[in-house]
Amino acid sequence: MSSLSAAETSQKSESSKAYGSDQIYVLEGLDPVKKRPEMYIGSTGPRGLHHLVYEILDNAVDEAQAEFASKIDVVLQSDGSVSITDNGRGNCAMILCM
């Protein structure tokens, strides 16, 4: 018969109160994106900004290739922000700031 050491007993009690279903909650709508944007774009720094610029420009190019847009404007602003607009479906304009 073996007995539990003090360390094993401590680990067992810590793991039992460490994480449970009562600590899980579901975020609705855009709340998950707002709360944890890095889960969707990889980073909230320069790398994430570049990823967003790539994705938005890629979407604008898709609109043009599908003949839903005839114009795409990409403007690198002096303050470091990027503005991407197209005249496709939704007439979306995105301004991304660093």
From TrEMBL:
Has the keyword Transport been applied to this entry? no
GO terms of molecular function? ATP binding; DNA binding; DNA topoisomerase type II (double strand cut, ATP-hydrolyzing) activity
Keywords from UniProt, A to Z, are: ATP-binding, DNA-binding, Isomerase, Nucleotide-binding, Topoisomerase
Q: Which residues form the Histidine kinase/HSP90-like ATPase domain?
A: 46-90
Per its UniProt entry, which superkingdom is the organism in?
A: Eukaryota
Family the UniProt entry places it in: Belongs to the type II topoisomerase GyrB family.
Name of this protein: Histidine kinase/HSP90-like ATPase domain-containing protein
Q: Which organism is it from?
A: Arachis hypogaea (Peanut)
